[in-house]
Amino acid sequence: MTTLPDTPAIPPSTTAGTPEPLGPDDFDALDNALDTLREHDDEVPQWEFCEGFMAALVCTRRPIPPAEYWPVLLGEGFVPAQQMEFVWRWKRRWAEIEEGLDADVQSLDDERTWQPEVLDTRGAIASLPEEERTEMVGEAIPSFAQVWALGFMYAVENWPDEWTAPRDKEAADMLNDALDNIVALTEDDTAKPTVSMFSEDGPPSVSQQRLDDFGAAIWAVYDLRQLWKSMGPRQETIRKEPQPGRNDLCPCGSGKKFKKCHGA
């Protein structure tokens, strides 16, 4: 697990000693912290984007240190020491994702299964009073889990060397298939809406195809986590400088043949 900066307090723990899962208040606090950061940098993303970005970091082949990923995600102006509460919750969420992805689950209904924190923004808007919905006509509203997938792929694109396909064909196919399933969520949901993920009785806003794609993306992240864990960090190729022939002049500048100088 990537080492994160010190936090202001020990995260609350369950009886098993692991950090408690984040609750609605925690995610509200994360959103509020990002809103504050956005006052000084309008490119600071929403939490759903951060959630996808974090999931990719958890899966990345080489552990990416915080000093390397904070500027990519939140800009050069982000100072972890000044955002300790944010970092504290980030660390807890990171532990949740790792625990869920490392659990031996066979079904998405398993309570141990990792579930991304994603939004049904269209469902939320569809549930608003008509006059408020009218104000948003013409605006681009992301599909269910679309922002999460964009955050995931943003991390992949920023560390391409860590996502290079392995030489092993089976492993390379596994990587490509998994990434394709996540990329599918970066596209718009254009199929007929059949269900609302915002509320049980809300107007339909998400298609069945989208739900199927979302499930496939969750399993894809499991595959990516296991793939890179099994392969480990890439080994750098050590390249030796070419050696002079025995009858060549020694590169030290002595004027002697290599065999009678440094090659002796």
Main β-sheet, spatial strand arrangement: 1-2
Given the C-alpha coordinates, what overall shape results?
A: elongated
Order of helices and strands, N to C?
HHHHHHHHEEH
Low-confidence stretches: 1-10
Number of helices: 9
Mean pLDDT: 87
The number of E-state strands comes to: 2
Going by helix content, strand content and strand pairing, the class is mainly alpha
Q: Tell me the strand percentage band.
A: under 5%
What kind of sheet is the major sheet?
2 strands, antiparallel
Cα radius of gyration in angstroms: 24 Å
State the distance separating the first and last CA atoms.
Answer: 49 Å
Helicity range: 40-55%
What does this structure look like?
With 264 residues, the protein is mainly alpha-helical. Helices cover 46% and strands 2% of the residues. It is built from nine helices and two strands; from the N terminus they run H-H-H-H-H-H-H-H-E-E-H. The chain has helices at 24-38, 47-59, 66-74, 84-102, 121-126, 130-134, 146-158, 169-186, 208-231, and strands at 193-195, 206-207. The N and C termini lie far apart (49 Å).
